[in-house]
Amino acid sequence: MNGPIRRQGPGGPLIASGYVWQATRPKVQVVMMGLLGLGGLGLALTINSFFNPIKDIWIAAVAAAVCLPAAYVAFRFRLGQCGFIFHERGPIEAPYGLPWPRIRRTRLSCSASEVKSVGMLQNVDPSSENARLYSVVLYLRNGDIIHLTSKDYKFELAHKVATELTNALEELQAPRVEARY
User: Fold this and answer.
1) CA–CA separation, 149 and 105 (whole Å)
2) Angle of helix 26-48 relative to helix 57-74, nearest 10 degrees?
3) Which of 11, 17, 42, 111 could form a disulfide with 168 if both were Cys (CB 3.0 to 4.6 A apart)?
4) 57 CB-side CA count, 13 A
5) Stated pTM of the model
6) pLDDT tens, N- to C-terminus, the chain (181 residues)
């Protein structure tokens, strides 16, 4: 599921809003494909050794046992869905995990009421003079900066994510007018 997230409470008021997107990173994709290939080859050789004995098959079995789970982790945490949800009562949820090294965490340490704005930071790629990479960040009211994404997004994707998260935060923080009868 890609796109905006809007959750309404009983009676219709907005209680949570956010954005979910698909992140593809070419460098991680190459590593993941290599891990899958090496793990698949190890698994195939291990299965083949049941029918035709192969000397030193333990190397292939270890390659399968190590590479296939590593490829799953790379796919799950760095190539899959990314997203953030701002809740009315405060917590900021990251249902698909945070950027490395906090990939297992699903909540930010700050609350939605502490967020002043969502923006982008330009990061310099030392391997290329022309490549400008960006990360999406939260600017907090106390001056802190929290990175929401890794530092390798192209401008278009970083701009789209920052814009959608800004819209989600503004909708959630918009004053509500309640009708009284």
Assistant:
1) 13
2) 150
3) 17
4) 13
5) 0.70
6) 688 888 888 877 888 999 998 876 666 778 788 888 888 888 898 888 888 888 888 888 888 898 888 887 776 655 667 889 999 878 899 887 777 667 677 888 888 889 999 999 988 766 666 677 888 999 999 999 988 887 778 888 899 999 999 999 998 888 766 655 6
